[in-house]
Write a structure and sequence with these properties.
By secondary structure, the protein is of the alpha/beta class. The chain has nine helices and 13 strands. It has one domain (about 60-350): Aminopeptidase. α3 packs parallel to α4. It is globular and about 90 Å long. The site of zinc ion has 7 residues, from α4.
Length: about 350
C-alpha cells in the first residue's frame, strides 16, 4: 500500500470517527431542544386559550340520550356482526332516515363487508402490520346531505360505532370509545340538515375500527369512496371526558393550513383545543403520534386531508369501566359545539380556495 493510499484511508477513518462522535454528543442536545420546543409550543397554546362563552346550537339532551342508547348494556358492546352491533347499525340507519339524509351506502344506508383473518402489512395502511382478526357481517352506515353547492366535493364526517363486545363475561360498553363520537355525528347531522353547509356532507358511522380500522379500509377497498373526489375528513373518536379538559386536534402538522383555522377555532371554543399528537418522533419527543391511531389514518394514507378530534387515553380506556355514567356532560357538550364550529370554519375556508 502506498503512503498516499494509507493517508487517504486514515483520513476517511478519522472522518467516520468524527462523525460518530459528533452524532453521539450532539444528538441528545438536539433532541432535547426539539422536545422543549414541542412542549413549550403546547404550553403556549394552552395558556393562550381564552375559553369563549358557551354556544348552544346542538340539542344537548338528545346528544346525551343517543350516547346512553349506544352505550346501554343491551347493545352488548357493539362488536361487529353480533346482535348488539347489528341492532346499533339498524338504529343508526333509522336515525339517518328520520333526519332526512340520503342513503349513500352500497345497500341503501349500509355498506356491508367481511374480512378474513390475515397477517400482513396492510396495503391500505402502511405500518399497521400484525394479525388482522376476521370480521364477519360488518357494515358501515353512510348518509349524505347534498349541501348548498353540490358541485363541491364532500366533507366526510366519521365516527366508529363498534366496540369490544363481551370478553370473559365482562361487558365493554364503549361509552367514550366511541358512543360519544357517534352521538355527536348524529346531532351534527340534525343541525346541518336544518342549517346546510356549502359543501355536501357525508356522514359515516364506521364498523370494525377496533383492531384494524377495517370499516374505513372497506370504504376505499370496495370503492364506495374515491379519495380524489373527497374534500376532507373530520374524524371523531372519544370526545366525552378528560381530567385536563383538553381536546386534541390532530392533523395540522400534515396540513399546516389548518393552524390558523385552529387558532380561530379556539376563539369559538369553550374547551381548550390543543394541536398535536401528529408530529414524527424526532419532532415530538415524548408526545406519541396519533396520525394512524383511528379511522382518519386510512384517509391520510389515501391522501385525503384530515383532522382528528379526540381526548387523551384515560384509565378506563378499553376496559369494562368505560361506561355512560363516567361521561363529563359539560365537557362533552362543549366539545361537540367546538367540532360544529370547526366544520363551519372549514366549509368557509374550503369554499374560498
Ligand atoms: Zn375508538
Amino acid at each position: 500500500m502506498s503512503i498516499t493510499k494509507r493517508l487517504y484511508l486514515a483520513s476517511i477513518a478519522m472522518l467516520v470517527i468524527a462523525a460518530i462522535l459528533l452524532y453521539t454528543l450532539a444528538w441528545p442536545a438536539w433532541q432535547q431542544q426539539l422536545t422543549a420546543t414541542e412542549s413549550s409550543r403546547l404550553a403556549l397554546l394552552i395558556n393562550n386559550a381564552k375559553p369563549a362563552t358557551a354556544q348552544m346550537r346542538l340539542n344537548h339532551q338528545q346528544l346525551r340520550a343517543d350516547l346512553n342508547w349506544l352505550a346501554h348494556p343491551d347493545r352488548q358492546g357493539r362488536k361487529p356482526g353480533t346482535v348488539g352491533g347489528i341492532t346499533a347499525r339498524n338504529w343508526l340507519a333509522e336515525q339517518f332516515a328520520t333526519i332526512g339524509l340520503l342513503p349513500a351506502g352500497s345497500d341503501q344506508f349500509f355498506q356491508p363487508f367481511s374480512v378474513e383473518q390475515h397477517f400482513k402489512v396492510s396495503r391500505w395502511l402502511r405500518g399497521q402490520n400484525g394479525t388482522i382478526a376476521a370480521v364477519d357481517n360488518a357494515a358501515n352506515v353512510v348518509g349524505l346531505l347534498p349541501g348548498l353547492n353540490p358541485a363541491l366535493q364532500p366533507i366526510v364526517l366519521t365516527a366508529h360505532y363498534d366496540h369490544l363486545g363481551i370478553q370473559n363475561d365482562l361487558l365493554f360498553a364503549g361509552a367514550d370509545d366511541n358512543a360519544s363520537g357517534v352521538a355527536t355525528l348524529l346531532e351534527l347531522a340534525r343541525y346541518f340538515s336544518a342549517n346546510p353547509t356549502a359543501h355536501p356532507l357525508l356522514f359515516v358511522a364506521l364498523d370494525a375500527e377496533e383492531g384494524g380500522l377495517q370499516g374505513a379500509v372497506a370504504l376505499f377497498q370496495h370503492q364506495l369512496l374515491k379519495p380524489e373526489q373527497l374534500a376532507f375528513n373530520v374524524n371523531m373518536d372519544m370526545l366525552s371526558r378528560d381530567t385536563n379538559q383538553l381536546l386534541y386536534a390532530v392533523g395540522s402538522y400534515q396540513q399546516p393550513w389548518l393552524s390558523p383555522l385552529l387558532q380561530q377555532l379556539q376563539q369559538h371554543s369553550a374547551v381548550k383545543v390543543v394541536a398535536g399528537h401528529d408530529r414524527p418522533w424526532y419532532r415530538a419527543g415524548n408526545t406519541t403520534d396519533w396520525t394512524l391511531s383511528s379511522d382518519h389514518g386510512v384517509f391520510h394514507q389515501q391522501k385525503v386531508p384530515f383532522i382528528y378530534f379526540g381526548v387523551a387515553d384515560h384509565a378506563d380506556y378499553h376496559t369494562e369501566r368505560d361506561t355512560a355514567d363516567k361521561v363529563d356532560d359539560n365537557f362533552y357538550f362543549q366539545v361537540s359545539e367546538t367540532i360544529l364550529s370547526f366544520i363551519l370554519l372549514l366549509d368557509k375556508q374550503l369554499s374560498q380556495r
